[in-house]
Amino acid sequence: MGFEKITLEHKRQVLEELADIKALFASRNWFPGTSGNLSMRVGDFDPEQFYFAVTASGKDKSLRTPEDFLFVDKHGKAIETTTLKPSAETLIHCEIYRLTGCGAVFHVHTVFNNLISEFFGTDGHVPIQGIELIKAFNIWEENAEIRVPVLPNFADIPSIAELVPGVLDAKVPGILLRNHGIYAWGKDAFEAKRHLEAFEFLFEVMYRQLLLKGATK
After folding, report:
1. CA distance linking residue 192 with residue 52, whole number of Å
2. Is 92 helix (H, G, I), strand (E, B) or coil?
3. Pair 142, 136: CB distance under 8 Å
4. How confident is the model over 14-57, as pLDDT tens digits?
5. I need a labelling partner for 92 at 20 to 30 A (CA). Which of 24, 37, 149, 154 fits?
């Protein structure tokens, strides 16, 4: 389906959902400075042709304006005439959509995801086991364990995007950038939000466990 076939109503619905989520996350201080980015797919998914709305670069995410989002194609290029620029990390969203067919991708910077990603950065993943909120990812085994991938935070975004296919785990809807932030996704905005909140809870629990144990590496 070409972008011109996507209804105006659907586009407006996506923009409204994104605006509400942006306001919620901003209230939690998950967008320090102008950091972080959000996106939601519009229309049907085809790995060779898809579109999504994404936050515009350099905007204060605590505000709600008509210039908060723009629509881009599978290459992260704007598909409507606009002066807005997509977030610098849009290419990472493109790869996640292409590989998963998900409906939304949320990226935030928090103290806990920065600390945990740095602590486990040289391992290439964060091992999490036996914490209740792993169930948020529809993993129900007793004492379940997941590994959240950690990618290096290169200044060159395409170099990061190239690494995504090699680490993406279909069972774990998240990827960390070392000392930077997390990308979490889901089939829709509700699921992506649930996954993101679960990751943030898990990272905080792990951080506090490490403090209690006096852990060093």
Report:
1. 15
2. helix
3. no
4. 999 999 999 999 999 999 998 999 999 999 999 999 999 999 99
5. 24
CA 148 to CA 72: how far, in whole Å? 28
Low-confidence ranges of the chain (pLDDT < 70): 215-217
* Rounded distance between C-alpha atoms, residue 205 and residue 112, angstroms: 9
12 phi/psi in degrees, rounded to 5? -65, -40
For residue 181, report the phi and psi dihedrals to the nearest 5 degrees. Answer: 170, -175
Q: Tokens 């774990």 label which residue? A: 172
pTM above 0.90, yes or no: yes
Res 88: pLDDT: 84
> What CA–CA distance (Å, rounded) separates 156 from 114?
19
Short-list 64, 86, 65, 63, CA closest to 76: 86
